[in-house]
Diaminopimelate epimerase (Chitinimonas prasina), 277 residues
Amino acid sequence: MKLRFTKMQGLGNDFVVLDGVSQALALSPIQLRQLGDRHFGVGCDQILLVENPHHPDADFRYRIFNGADGGEVEQCGNGARCFVRFVHDRGLTGKRTIRVETARGLITPRLEDNGLVTVDMGAPRFNPAEIPFIAEHEAVSHSIKVAARMVEISAVSMGNPHAVQVVENVDNAPVALEGPIIEHHPLFPERVNAGFMQIASRSEIRLRVYERGAGETLACGTGACAAVVSGIRRGLLDSTVRVHTRGGELSISWAGEGQPVLMTGPAVTVFEGEIEL
Ligand SMILES: N[C@H](CCC[C@H](N)C(=O)O)C(=O)O
């Protein structure tokens, strides 16, 4: 079948975005993996499927699939920014602030006048059962065995699971070695995104993320949210933080327990295309 798509990126985290509102779409895992394949398909970190909502308070439903394995996941921060630009630019809505139903709750992205996008990502969750993370109790950080060493990680859910550690310098952090080990760590039954955070100041961090089902990406929006929340809970960061990723900069704010995380950053349309699947 011929499939029209839009290629987009948020800080180099790239997406194939599909309009499931104007057309009914049901793609198999094989077709999703083909879309995500950078040699035999279009190539992207994630596929974003825009649909009509089931939730009465939502304007749209937003489904996310990791490009490398075609697995459906709960949340995507950079994707949420691209999503609102997509539905606005395609005339699927006239609103600049929309309510979006995701697998783990409602998020509220807003197109700003300056072209950036701010997303209320909802409140982070720390209860191990909600991450999911196998642990006796909730804690700011947990020591887990990774290869030959013990690593202090903060386990956080932004709808999707994150394990964040603090490193001296992200440039020489063991992302390639420890990323896959943490992703598949037995204490994370649904796998996990592995964050490596360098504290530059109380209002600035550098971050690399080895993403579940995608490998290291140039930026991870939910990873930036999870890192800032972890840093604040560890007493290392103030409530608004500039997050420097390899793909560019995000602004993340969190006012504390029970409060939503706000993320602001760019969303760019790269090209429109058509592929035979
Ligand atoms: N790999 C993630 C999904 C994409 C998240 C990331 N691209 C973002 O911007 O939040 C997971 O399996 O939970």
Q: What stands out?
A: Residues 77-89 form the longest helix (13 residues). The chain has a mean pLDDT of 96. Helices lie at 29-36, 77-89, 175-183, 221-233. The chain has four helices and 18 strands.
